[in-house]
Description:
Blueprint: H1 13-16, E1 27-28, H2 30-37, E2 45-51, H3 71-77, H4 96-104, E3 108-113, E4 118-123, H5 125-132, E5 137-142, E6 145-146, H6 159-162, H7 180-184, H8 189-193, E7 202-207, E8 222-228, H9 245-255, E9 257-258, E10 262-263, E11 270-275, E12 285-286, H10 287-299, E13 304-307, H11 332-342, E14 346-350, E15 373-378, E16 404-407, E17 411-414, E18 422-426, H12 429-446, H13 452-461, H14 480-487, E19 503-504, E20 516-522, E21 526-533, E22 539-548, E23 551-557, E24 570-579, E25 585-594
Parallel strand pairs: 1-5, 7-11, 7-13, 8-11, 13-14, 14-15, 15-16
Antiparallel strand pairs: 2-4, 2-5, 3-4, 6-12, 9-10, 17-18, 19-20, 20-23, 21-22, 21-24, 24-25
Helix pairs in contact: 9-12, 10-11, 13-14
Amino acid sequence: MNTLSRFVIVMSLSELIAVAPEASGGTITPRLAGALRGSAASVSHLVWVSFTDKGAQELGKTVAPSALVTEQSLRRRANVLPEESLVDGTDLPVDESYVTQLGVTGAVVQNRSKWLNAVSVRATADQIRSIAALPFVREVELVGRHKRSLPPPASPDDPALTRPLAKTSGPHSLDYGPSINQVSLINVPDLHDSGNYAQGVIVGVFDDGFRLPNHEAFASLKVIATYDFVDKKVSVVPDSTWLGDHGVNTLSTIGGYKPGQIIGPAFGASYILARTENTLSETPLEEDNWVRAIEWADSLGVQVTSTSLGYLDYDPGYSSWTWQDMDGRTTVISRAAAMAVRKGILVVNSAGNEGFSASHNTLTAPADADSVVAAGAVDLSGMRAGFSSVGPSTAVPPRIKPDLMAPGMSMYVASAFDATGYAFGVQGTSFACPLVAGAAALLVKAHPTMPPMKIVDAMKATASRAYAPDNMMGWGIVNARAAHNYLSGGDTSTPPQTPASFILQQNYPNPFNPGTDVVYSLPVPSAISLTVYDMLGREIKTLASGQLAAGSRTARWDGRDNRNVPVAAGTYIYRLIANGPNGVQSVLSSKMILLR
């Protein structure tokens, strides 16, 4: 018997899809109504049209379950869902008779979403009102769009750009070349040494296209499916040959393999590639491309997704998503991403490059969703990148965001313009995301039946700030080796905390009053001193000193000096000096601001 034939629907579509608010038709949301009032009648709008049901379709009767998802998808879903619920009404396609009637109004259908039971259409104000009056329409809303925020360019004075690049793999079995700096900070080489390259794991990468598929770093990349949701074609190479560079950079970060140059965490995985962003058009990215891509990838059995994009702004003149909307439930893309996790997909998204705000979060959707792993960026010494977006989400209660951190500064990637070239110095949470996703893929390989959220929990429990997560760094820098040990039956009450390198994190909060925390990490037992100085170099306060074991710790400063006297407001420097057993000294420092 075919496995799919055993699955039955366990709830009615009326339970899965909200009924229409009125029998006579659907609702135009306030956001869309505002956009219609502010535009000419001839202007076309991109909108979501949500249906009340899926028509006369019935799972197992009019539609065979075997036509909806692959065996690979079922095996993945079995990790999180009971056998009788692996396929349900959300997997049924939208009713095509409804779509046809939308077309009668003159609206142009763009994409279909079976999970949301909705289609995106381009329509004028009059057409939208006609659509809303149809009895099977539940709601009409604007499609979310995004102007991708870019981190500031690396300063030419950045020491990371001028120091010699690592060229050898050291004690490891693979030669990572310059990419050793980014993968070693998250302890990936240790898992590679065990023979785990994420072989057989299906990873989805959604980006702006992949313009140079013949780059030498992709020579051994196993690609099992591609689709361009912008231009509706199979090839993910944009028609304009100068587009698609971002995708080349991010794909090489997670899956590139060229010994002596670059080795990504999940270079042995099988890849599904989707183009979801159109960087050529003046119209920003439309979230329906991403929703369609995640549904397509799900049906093919994707296990981990990496998306270095985010959604926040509409076009000028439209009502935009705001930071208050980053609650994981408001935007369509966040709802779809959360549904993907419920179906057993481990979803990783860049947190955003909006930096820090003292008054609110700077997240972009779907990084705001509870079950989506929001990846923030650190530099190669483990310090938070200033451009990395911060939380919390606006859910009730608020959720800590980002979730995990990985390198996103001074990155080494495949060139998008030279099939044998490489680029150094690119930055953004766009690169932290594929590193986190790649580490997750290694854990999926090692623990194939583990539910995705259990893997995420292990990554959090073993990250550098697991004992003190916050909205600047989340649970801290990923430690792939420690997470694997944790999932393999290590001591779950005291998970491994050994970092990959000496780390001195940015104090939090900063600015502060009355106190602040400084987190520092030692990869080996070391004699250390952690000291606060004023801007003239005078010692103010010793926060920690002595011989310490490897691990991560937090030191707190209450704004008082060594005599326990409060100091004046201003900028101070804190410095960690660590002497390891091999005689090598590490000196790290940063600035903090005390308010009074």
